[in-house]
Write a structure and sequence with these properties.
Length: about 240
């Protein structure tokens, strides 16, 4: 139990320290700030997953360096460091996350775009920010079209991310995530963060796999939304 508690403390310490490093670099306006920040994000993600006892496996197509949207299924908060260790991306997340202690600070540090999911106006602003991030700032953004964590992918994805891609002429790079054991990693329903991560720390071993598809162009947002949700759902059936 003591060892699990120490690992839990280390998770938050790693998150806070790496977020502070990113904020310092941003304040210095360095020419190579982007590459430095991307490396810090990758180091933080890798160290956090290793500290949680997560074995990482990255397969599939090579991750693109071209600014685009990364889109895939969403099972757990572990998805965020798993994607981050695999690709230089920022994220879109619900605005409530910005108020979480330490986690919220870290999300702001890495350039997360926050959105009120029930607000049409907020979603419009987020769509504009995403386009600017990719086209003007030359950075990639990761979105989870399910809008929430799920193990089944029964509810249709929201096609907003695909519409943003078409509107701004951006490609998407689909990915799909799975864990083993899946139910240990899944953070769904009424799960509480602290109790869930405590259970995770007491698990002897957890395997995480992320598979990337080749980047694709979006011509029909609705059809592409359905296509890539089916692709992700197909992989979950093999578990």
């Amino acid at each position: 139990m003591i060892q699990s508690f120490l690992r839990l403390i280390r998770v938050f310490t790693l998150t806070a320290s790496h977020a502070r490093r990113i904020m310092r670099i941003k304040s210095q306006n360095l020419k190579d700030a982007r590459s430095c920040i991307d490396q810090i994000k990758k180091d933080w993600a890798k160290a956090s997953l290793e500290n949680l006892g997560v074995n990482i496996k990255i397969i599939g197509a090579e991750v693109s360096e071209e600014p685009m949207l990364f889109i895939g299924n969403h099972i757990s908060y572990l998805d965020i460091p798993l994607v981050m260790v695999s690709a230089p991306v920022s994220f879109v997340a619900k605005v409530e996350l910005s108020q979480w202690p330490i986690i919220g600070y870290a999300c702001r540090a890495v350039g997360t775009v926050f959105v009120k999911r029930e607000s049409i106006e907020s979603r419009k602003i987020a769509a504009q920010k995403i386009g600017e991030a990719c086209l003007k700032n030359q950075q990639s953004i990761c979105l989870f079209p399910s809008g929430t964590t799920t193990l089944t992918e029964e509810k249709p994805w929201r096609r907003g991310a695909f519409e943003i891609a078409k509107l701004h002429g951006l490609k998407i790079q689909p990915f799909r995530i799975k864990y083993k054991p899946q139910k240990v990693a899944a953070f769904i329903g009424d799960d509480a963060f602290v109790s869930h991560i405590w259970q995770l720390l007491r698990t002897k071993e957890l395997d995480a796999e992320i598979e990337f598809h080749e980047p694709v162009e979006i011509l029909d947002p609705q059809k592409e939304c359905e296509r890539w949700q089916s692709w992700c759902k197909e992989d979950l059936k093999t578990i």
